[in-house]
């Protein structure tokens, strides 16, 4: 799953493309549909997200391990 | 008539305090004074086998007794020698049993050490500055929508709790990765530097916050360390330094890409407010809709214009052809003998229907026809 940052950046790009002068009707329709789908997904994500808090530990071999942190 | 008592004016209505009442009251008054730093010369140092220290602090005209309990004394290193000038952090108190005003000391720092610390701080600052670690040009912009945020701090401290609270409210889509470090005392510099280097090994981190909550000046010392500052400068994602309270400034604040007054403020800088992002989404939704409708209108207009042009094109082609036909027709007319007759010429035609072109073909007395524009006329050859 892409990050919310990537999703929002893509959305902003879609809006700009759709507003550009040189986009033809077919492309505009495709952009619009893609944009609406992504908008819906982003809204969903914003309202249902729950913060993850993890502690990063370095193991003896140097590997990193993440464990949930109770706060 | 009033009765006069023999004892210096004390009356039955006058309130009389016991010594304990007085001492308790004064003690309460004195102890309401908050802890403060006092500067003076240490004299008459006594170190008891219990571990408590007793000494006096004096200046040119005054002197005050000081007590430093074992739990504080054992953290303070070797006891000061008589005549040392020091800063002490102390709360005023009263030793009721002797009615003695005294200071309860929790910290003691020789003034020379402070001067030395200050000089060391200046040296570190100069080196970091020379190496360009404070340059505005190397400051990176913080990401708009951070996804994974690394936090280098103590997992037991107040800072991480504040950061979690703020980010949970504003930007719960984020993932917080806490890298534990000691933020004061022994090992703070080493664990902070190691934690910062470890951040570079975590995949896909967008931002790093390093900090701690408020504390004494010395508690924040690790954030002035050269090792920590250089490790911070090498973090490969944008960094925010958030050390102590609003008024505290440390060298990490200068090295980091952004400085936050407190850990909570750092959390606010680290992420957007989801309500603002929701408004941004609404704005984009509107722009998508108007973008599409604008595009369809444009297409419709373009189509209409194309149609017009097509029609105009056909019309002009037809027109052109018609004009061509007219011109060609006119040329054809000009070429036709009928057209020549139109201009007043006549053609003589013999009895055999042949056109008479030479004098010899005209026989005197013989009839022939003259063809003019609108028909034939009878004629006869006369001698000239």
Q: On the 0-100 scale, what is the average pLDDT of chain A?
A: 88
**Oligomeric state of shown chains:** heterodimer
DSSP helical segment count of chain B = 10
Weakly predicted, low-confidence segments of chain B: none
User: Residue share in helices of chain B?
Assistant: 25-40%
Radius of gyration of chain B: 55 Å
Terminus-to-terminus distance of chain B: 192 Å
Strand arrangement, major sheet of chain A = 1-2
What is the assigned CATH homologous superfamily of the largest domain in chain B? Answer: Hypothetical protein af1403, domain 2
Overview of this protein structure:
The complex is a heterodimer of chains A (71) and B (384). By secondary structure, chain A is α+β, with helices and mostly antiparallel strands. Chain A has one domain. In chain A, a hairpin with a 5-residue loop joins strand 1 (52-58) and strand 2 (64-68). Helices cover 56% and strands 17% of the residues of chain A. Chain A is elongated, with a radius of gyration of 19 Å. Chain B has three domains: 19-112, Nucleic acid-binding proteins (OB fold (Dihydrolipoamide Acetyltransferase, E2P)); 142-275, 3-Layer(aba) Sandwich (Rossmann fold), CATH 3.40.50.10550; 338-380, no CATH class. Chain B is 39% helix and 22% strand. In chain B, the strands form three sheets. A five-stranded mixed barrel of chain B has the order 1-2-3-5-4. In chain B, strands 7-6-8-9-10 form a five-stranded parallel β-sheet, with helices on both faces. In chain B, strands 11-12-13 form a three-stranded antiparallel β-sheet. In chain B, helix 4 packs parallel to helix 8 (263-270) and helix 5 runs parallel beside helix 6. Chain B is rod-shaped, with a radius of gyration of 55 Å. The chains are: A alpha+beta (71), B alpha/beta (384). Chain A binds chain B through residues 3-5, 8-9, 11-12, 14-15, 18-19, 23-25, 28-29, 31-32, 35-36, 39, 42-43, 45-46, 49-58, 64, 66, 69, 71, and chain B through 143-148, 150, 155, 160-161, 164, 167-168, 171-180, 198, 201-202, 204, 206, 274, 277-278, 280-281, 284-285, 287-289, 291-292, 294-296, 299. Strand 1 (52-58) of chain A pairs parallel with strand 7 of chain B, so a sheet runs across the interface.
